[in-house]
Amino acid sequence: MRSAADPCSYVVLKNVSKTFLDGDQKVHAVRDACLVASPGELIVLLGPSGSGKTTLLTLIAGLLSPTSGSLSLFGQSLTSYSNGDLQSMRAKRIGFIFQNFLLIDSIPVVENVAMVLRFSGRGRSDALARARELLDQFGIGYLARKLPSALSQGEKQRVAVARAIANNPELIIADEPTASLETNQGFDIIRLLHDYARQERRCVIVATHDLRIADLADRVLRVVDGRVRVQCPQDQAKEVYPGRPVA
Ligand SMILES: Nc1ncnc2c1ncn2[C@@H]1O[C@H](COP(=O)(O)OP(=O)(O)O)[C@@H](O)[C@H]1O
Ligand SMILES: [Mg+2]
Fold first, then answer.
1. Mutate which of 16, 31, 45, 55 to test ligand 1's pocket (most atoms within 8 Å of Cβ)?
2. CATH number of the domain that 200 lies in?
3. Is the dihedral of CA 120, 126, 128, 130 positive or negative?
4. Helix intervals (H) in 63-108
5. 2 domain residue, yes or no
6. Quick one: 92 exposed, middle or buried, by C-beta within 10 A (0-12, 13-18, 19+)?
7. What's the domain range around 20?
8. For the segment 131-166, what is each residue's pLDDT rounded down to a tens digit?
9. Protein residue with least CA distance to atom 26, ligand 1
Protein backbone atom coordinates (compact mmCIF):
# COMPACT_ATOMS: atom_id res chain seq x y z
CA MET A 1 0.00 0.00 0.00
CA ARG A 2 1.19 3.54 -0.65
CA SER A 3 1.41 5.73 2.41
CA ALA A 4 -0.76 8.83 2.79
CA ALA A 5 2.32 10.98 2.19
CA ASP A 6 3.11 9.40 -1.16
CA PRO A 7 2.73 12.10 -3.83
CA CYS A 8 1.80 9.33 -6.32
CA SER A 9 -1.54 8.88 -4.56
CA TYR A 10 -4.28 10.83 -6.29
CA VAL A 11 -6.77 10.69 -3.43
CA VAL A 12 -6.03 10.36 0.26
CA LEU A 13 -8.80 10.41 2.85
CA LYS A 14 -7.85 10.21 6.50
CA ASN A 15 -10.64 9.58 9.00
CA VAL A 16 -13.12 11.64 7.01
CA SER A 17 -16.64 12.06 8.40
CA LYS A 18 -19.61 13.98 7.07
CA THR A 19 -22.65 14.74 9.17
CA PHE A 20 -25.77 16.42 7.79
CA LEU A 21 -28.48 18.07 9.81
CA ASP A 22 -31.95 16.91 8.88
CA GLY A 23 -34.15 19.20 10.99
CA ASP A 24 -32.64 18.66 14.43
CA GLN A 25 -31.54 15.11 13.59
CA LYS A 26 -27.91 14.39 12.77
CA VAL A 27 -27.33 12.10 9.80
CA HIS A 28 -23.90 10.49 9.81
CA ALA A 29 -23.56 9.98 6.07
CA VAL A 30 -19.83 9.13 6.15
CA ARG A 31 -17.99 7.96 9.25
CA ASP A 32 -14.24 7.89 9.71
CA ALA A 33 -13.44 6.94 6.13
CA CYS A 34 -9.87 6.21 5.08
CA LEU A 35 -8.96 5.72 1.44
CA VAL A 36 -5.86 5.88 -0.71
CA ALA A 37 -6.41 5.77 -4.49
CA SER A 38 -3.54 5.65 -6.94
CA PRO A 39 -2.95 5.78 -10.70
CA GLY A 40 -3.79 2.72 -12.77
CA GLU A 41 -6.55 1.29 -10.61
CA LEU A 42 -10.31 0.99 -10.76
CA ILE A 43 -11.83 1.00 -7.28
CA VAL A 44 -15.44 0.02 -6.65
CA LEU A 45 -17.27 1.41 -3.63
CA LEU A 46 -19.94 -1.19 -3.07
CA GLY A 47 -22.87 -0.51 -0.79
CA PRO A 48 -26.65 -0.41 -0.60
CA SER A 49 -28.72 2.68 -1.21
CA GLY A 50 -28.28 5.23 1.60
CA SER A 51 -24.92 3.82 2.73
CA GLY A 52 -23.01 7.03 1.96
CA LYS A 53 -21.48 6.38 -1.49
CA THR A 54 -22.62 9.62 -3.17
CA THR A 55 -21.57 11.68 -0.14
CA LEU A 56 -18.16 10.04 -0.25
CA LEU A 57 -17.72 10.76 -3.98
CA THR A 58 -18.87 14.33 -3.46
CA LEU A 59 -16.29 14.77 -0.71
CA ILE A 60 -13.57 13.27 -2.91
CA ALA A 61 -14.45 15.74 -5.68
CA GLY A 62 -14.14 18.63 -3.21
CA LEU A 63 -17.78 19.57 -3.74
CA LEU A 64 -18.50 19.13 -0.02
CA SER A 65 -16.28 19.85 2.97
CA PRO A 66 -15.85 17.12 5.54
CA THR A 67 -17.17 17.64 9.07
CA SER A 68 -13.91 16.16 10.34
CA GLY A 69 -10.84 14.43 9.00
CA SER A 70 -8.53 15.39 6.17
CA LEU A 71 -8.61 14.91 2.45
CA SER A 72 -6.01 15.52 -0.21
CA LEU A 73 -6.21 15.40 -3.96
CA PHE A 74 -3.19 15.08 -6.24
CA GLY A 75 -0.81 15.49 -3.31
CA GLN A 76 -2.37 18.70 -1.99
CA SER A 77 -4.69 19.17 0.97
CA LEU A 78 -8.16 20.26 -0.16
CA THR A 79 -8.17 23.03 2.44
CA SER A 80 -5.14 24.59 0.73
CA TYR A 81 -6.94 25.05 -2.61
CA SER A 82 -8.62 28.42 -3.11
CA ASN A 83 -12.17 28.23 -4.50
CA GLY A 84 -10.92 29.22 -7.95
CA ASP A 85 -8.09 26.68 -7.89
CA LEU A 86 -10.48 23.98 -6.75
CA GLN A 87 -12.87 24.72 -9.60
CA SER A 88 -10.11 24.79 -12.16
CA MET A 89 -8.51 21.60 -10.78
CA ARG A 90 -11.88 19.86 -10.94
CA ALA A 91 -12.49 20.99 -14.53
CA LYS A 92 -9.06 19.85 -15.72
CA ARG A 93 -8.22 16.84 -13.59
CA ILE A 94 -11.48 15.11 -12.67
CA GLY A 95 -14.00 13.49 -15.00
CA PHE A 96 -17.53 12.76 -13.78
CA ILE A 97 -20.07 10.15 -14.79
CA PHE A 98 -23.42 10.60 -13.10
CA GLN A 99 -26.30 8.25 -12.51
CA ASN A 100 -28.50 8.39 -15.64
CA PHE A 101 -25.55 10.20 -17.27
CA LEU A 102 -27.04 13.72 -16.97
CA LEU A 103 -26.41 14.69 -20.58
CA ILE A 104 -27.82 18.10 -21.49
CA ASP A 105 -30.80 17.39 -23.71
CA SER A 106 -31.02 20.82 -25.33
CA ILE A 107 -27.62 20.63 -27.07
CA PRO A 108 -26.20 18.03 -29.48
CA VAL A 109 -23.98 15.19 -28.33
CA VAL A 110 -20.80 16.77 -29.70
CA GLU A 111 -21.45 19.92 -27.70
CA ASN A 112 -22.11 17.91 -24.54
CA VAL A 113 -18.62 16.47 -24.88
CA ALA A 114 -17.05 19.77 -25.96
CA MET A 115 -18.52 21.56 -22.95
CA VAL A 116 -16.10 20.01 -20.44
CA LEU A 117 -13.22 21.00 -22.71
CA ARG A 118 -14.52 24.57 -22.81
CA PHE A 119 -14.73 24.59 -18.99
CA SER A 120 -11.08 23.64 -18.82
CA GLY A 121 -10.13 26.59 -21.01
CA ARG A 122 -10.05 25.31 -24.60
CA GLY A 123 -11.33 27.46 -27.47
CA ARG A 124 -14.64 26.50 -29.10
CA SER A 125 -13.34 25.10 -32.39
CA ASP A 126 -10.53 23.19 -30.70
CA ALA A 127 -13.00 21.75 -28.17
CA LEU A 128 -15.43 20.69 -30.90
CA ALA A 129 -12.66 19.07 -32.94
CA ARG A 130 -11.42 17.08 -29.93
CA ALA A 131 -15.01 16.09 -29.08
CA ARG A 132 -15.58 14.77 -32.63
CA GLU A 133 -12.32 12.86 -32.47
CA LEU A 134 -13.37 11.23 -29.19
CA LEU A 135 -16.80 10.27 -30.49
CA ASP A 136 -15.13 8.67 -33.52
CA GLN A 137 -12.76 6.83 -31.21
CA PHE A 138 -15.76 5.40 -29.35
CA GLY A 139 -17.43 4.38 -32.62
CA ILE A 140 -20.27 6.89 -32.20
CA GLY A 141 -19.15 9.73 -34.46
CA TYR A 142 -22.45 9.36 -36.32
CA LEU A 143 -24.29 10.56 -33.18
CA ALA A 144 -22.46 13.89 -32.99
CA ARG A 145 -25.33 16.12 -34.13
CA LYS A 146 -28.13 14.20 -32.40
CA LEU A 147 -29.77 15.40 -29.22
CA PRO A 148 -29.19 13.11 -26.23
CA SER A 149 -32.94 12.46 -25.90
CA ALA A 150 -32.79 10.59 -29.24
CA LEU A 151 -30.13 8.14 -27.97
CA SER A 152 -30.48 4.66 -26.52
CA GLN A 153 -29.17 4.03 -22.99
CA GLY A 154 -26.14 2.22 -24.43
CA GLU A 155 -25.35 5.19 -26.71
CA LYS A 156 -25.78 7.65 -23.84
CA GLN A 157 -23.39 5.55 -21.81
CA ARG A 158 -20.66 5.87 -24.44
CA VAL A 159 -21.21 9.62 -24.73
CA ALA A 160 -20.96 9.92 -20.93
CA VAL A 161 -17.63 8.05 -20.94
CA ALA A 162 -16.33 10.14 -23.86
CA ARG A 163 -17.29 13.30 -21.95
CA ALA A 164 -15.67 12.08 -18.73
CA ILE A 165 -12.34 11.29 -20.37
CA ALA A 166 -12.29 14.28 -22.76
CA ASN A 167 -9.71 16.17 -20.71
CA ASN A 168 -7.71 13.00 -20.08
CA PRO A 169 -8.34 13.50 -16.34
CA GLU A 170 -6.20 11.77 -13.74
CA LEU A 171 -9.29 10.85 -11.75
CA ILE A 172 -12.73 9.70 -12.89
CA ILE A 173 -15.58 9.58 -10.42
CA ALA A 174 -18.60 7.56 -11.49
CA ASP A 175 -21.77 7.43 -9.38
CA GLU A 176 -23.95 4.40 -10.14
CA PRO A 177 -23.02 4.52 -13.84
CA THR A 178 -24.66 1.18 -14.58
CA ALA A 179 -27.93 1.76 -12.75
CA SER A 180 -30.01 2.33 -15.88
CA LEU A 181 -28.31 -0.32 -18.04
CA GLU A 182 -28.76 -3.95 -18.95
CA THR A 183 -26.12 -6.20 -17.41
CA ASN A 184 -23.99 -6.46 -20.57
CA GLN A 185 -24.04 -2.71 -21.10
CA GLY A 186 -23.11 -2.26 -17.44
CA PHE A 187 -20.09 -4.50 -17.96
CA ASP A 188 -19.17 -2.54 -21.11
CA ILE A 189 -19.00 0.77 -19.29
CA ILE A 190 -16.87 -0.66 -16.49
CA ARG A 191 -14.56 -2.32 -19.04
CA LEU A 192 -14.14 1.00 -20.89
CA LEU A 193 -13.28 2.69 -17.60
CA HIS A 194 -10.95 -0.10 -16.59
CA ASP A 195 -9.08 0.12 -19.91
CA TYR A 196 -8.77 3.85 -19.38
CA ALA A 197 -7.32 3.39 -15.89
CA ARG A 198 -4.83 0.78 -17.09
CA GLN A 199 -3.76 2.25 -20.42
CA GLU A 200 -3.52 5.87 -19.33
CA ARG A 201 -2.38 5.16 -15.74
CA ARG A 202 -5.39 7.00 -14.40
CA CYS A 203 -7.60 6.31 -11.38
CA VAL A 204 -11.31 5.48 -11.57
CA ILE A 205 -13.60 5.33 -8.54
CA VAL A 206 -17.03 3.81 -9.16
CA ALA A 207 -19.88 3.77 -6.62
CA THR A 208 -22.44 1.04 -7.13
CA HIS A 209 -24.86 -1.23 -5.32
CA ASP A 210 -24.45 -3.80 -8.12
CA LEU A 211 -22.50 -6.80 -6.89
CA ARG A 212 -21.77 -7.97 -10.45
CA ILE A 213 -19.76 -4.84 -11.26
CA ALA A 214 -17.45 -5.61 -8.36
CA ASP A 215 -15.95 -8.51 -10.30
CA LEU A 216 -14.33 -6.11 -12.76
CA ALA A 217 -12.64 -3.96 -10.11
CA ASP A 218 -9.03 -3.95 -9.00
CA ARG A 219 -10.24 -3.32 -5.47
CA VAL A 220 -13.66 -3.47 -3.86
CA LEU A 221 -14.32 -1.37 -0.79
CA ARG A 222 -17.53 -2.03 1.01
CA VAL A 223 -19.62 0.88 2.30
CA VAL A 224 -22.06 0.16 5.11
CA ASP A 225 -23.88 2.80 7.17
CA GLY A 226 -21.35 5.44 6.18
CA ARG A 227 -18.38 3.28 7.13
CA VAL A 228 -15.88 2.31 4.47
CA ARG A 229 -13.78 -0.78 4.82
CA VAL A 230 -10.59 0.37 3.22
CA GLN A 231 -6.86 0.10 3.41
CA CYS A 232 -6.22 1.77 6.74
CA PRO A 233 -3.34 -0.26 8.19
CA GLN A 234 -5.62 -1.77 10.82
CA ASP A 235 -7.90 -3.02 8.05
CA GLN A 236 -5.16 -4.62 5.99
CA ALA A 237 -5.84 -8.13 7.09
CA LYS A 238 -9.62 -7.85 7.16
CA GLU A 239 -11.86 -9.13 4.47
CA VAL A 240 -13.86 -6.35 2.87
CA TYR A 241 -15.85 -8.46 0.49
CA PRO A 242 -16.64 -12.16 0.66
CA GLY A 243 -13.70 -14.09 -0.69
CA ARG A 244 -11.78 -10.98 -1.64
CA PRO A 245 -9.02 -9.76 0.69
CA VAL A 246 -8.01 -6.10 0.82
CA ALA A 247 -5.33 -5.35 -1.78
N1 LIG B 1 -27.80 16.92 1.91
C2 LIG B 1 -28.21 16.00 2.77
N3 LIG B 1 -28.91 16.33 3.87
C4 LIG B 1 -29.32 15.40 4.78
N5 LIG B 1 -29.07 14.08 4.65
C6 LIG B 1 -28.37 13.69 3.56
C7 LIG B 1 -27.91 14.62 2.56
N8 LIG B 1 -27.25 13.92 1.59
C9 LIG B 1 -27.30 12.63 1.96
N10 LIG B 1 -27.97 12.48 3.13
C11 LIG B 1 -28.20 11.23 3.86
O12 LIG B 1 -26.94 10.60 4.03
C13 LIG B 1 -27.06 9.21 3.89
C14 LIG B 1 -26.15 8.73 2.76
O15 LIG B 1 -26.65 9.22 1.53
P16 LIG B 1 -25.91 8.99 0.15
O17 LIG B 1 -24.51 9.42 0.28
O18 LIG B 1 -26.74 9.63 -0.90
O19 LIG B 1 -25.97 7.40 0.02
P20 LIG B 1 -25.90 6.45 -1.29
O21 LIG B 1 -25.28 7.23 -2.40
O22 LIG B 1 -25.08 5.27 -0.84
O23 LIG B 1 -27.31 6.06 -1.61
C24 LIG B 1 -28.53 8.92 3.65
O25 LIG B 1 -29.12 8.62 4.87
C26 LIG B 1 -29.04 10.24 3.09
O27 LIG B 1 -30.41 10.39 3.35
MG1 LIG C 1 -25.98 7.57 -4.35
1. 55
2. 3.40.50.300
3. negative
4. 83-93
5. no
6. middle
7. 11-245
8. 999 999 888 999 999 999 999 988 998 999 999 999
9. 50
